[in-house]
Amino acid sequence: MRIGLYPGTFDPLTLGHRDIIGRAAQLVDRLVIGVAINRDKGPLFTLEERVAMIEAEVADLSASTGIEIVAHPFENLLIDCARDVGAKVIIRGLRAVTDFEYEFQMVGMNRALDDSIETVFLMAEVRHQAIASKLVKEIARLGGDVSKFVSPAIRTALVARLAEAR
Description:
The protein has 166 residues and is of the alpha/beta class. It contains six helices and five strands; from the N terminus they run E-H-E-H-E-H-E-H-E-H-H. Strands 3-2-1-4-5 form a five-stranded parallel β-sheet, with helices on both faces. Strand 1, helix 1 and strand 2 form a beta-alpha-beta unit. It is globular and about 45 Å long. The mean pLDDT is 93.
């Protein structure tokens, strides 16, 4: 069984993430969405909320493809998370050259830690290349329409969370 790990903070899950998940699911038999517990980023949504949103957003894709897609929280090294879930491939999405520079360093470090785990890069679809969770939150915080960047359910959750914070 080919198990892939697609890690990120997913705060919130965007249509760009969803695109990468859909394409990654075509490459593996089981896809684990590694939801990073990154206290330094100060997520808007709790870990439990992000996991629940991911599970809800990928349920239809999992059902239609027959590929098991699960959310898995982690706070350890990415390479250790990959080992924990049995992944032999780490899937990373790229939007721009700046993403590649960071990811290139990460691949080198991960290969030094465990050269049996490969990293595969998937380029974001052109219409999703500008989407970043940080920017989506900023647009929503300032009252902009984020419906082009997230699903209706995520948009509702985002707007509600920001209203609570006011």
